[in-house]
Amino acid sequence: MSSKEFLVFLVLISTYVYCVSELTEETCETLPSEIHITKEEFDELGRLQRTCNGEISVNKCEGSCKSQVQPSVITPTGFLKECYCCRESYLRERIITLTHCYDPDGVRLAAEGENSMDVKLREPSECKCYKCGDFSR
């Protein structure tokens, strides 16, 4: 393949990639989901005191974002890549209560103060497309 044919090939590929990326919609959104959490509590000597767990509802980021690759004479690889990823734009802090607590022998705890555990977590409250690898937001 001559260099002229190769250049034409690159332009065609570039045009195809650009057209496909233009047709692809961004679907990045914040969606509800269910997860199972298990949290263990230890004493000062490192011995297990209790284990608490539960199913909780949390938000997650999911979807796709427009990205493209095009030929470039400026970049060392010969291609300019613009990649975008769906991720959180804002995290909110939440306290959740786990209500299934057990002692180290697996016996369910019923005493007030031992039968539940509060856990702090951070979850996405908003999601959007960001340039991949850009953590400076």
Automatic annotation (TrEMBL):
Transmembrane segments: none annotated. Keywords: Signal. The keyword Signal applies. The keyword Manganese does not apply. Residues 1-19 form the signal peptide. This is Partner of bursicon. It comes from Hypothenemus hampei (Coffee berry borer).
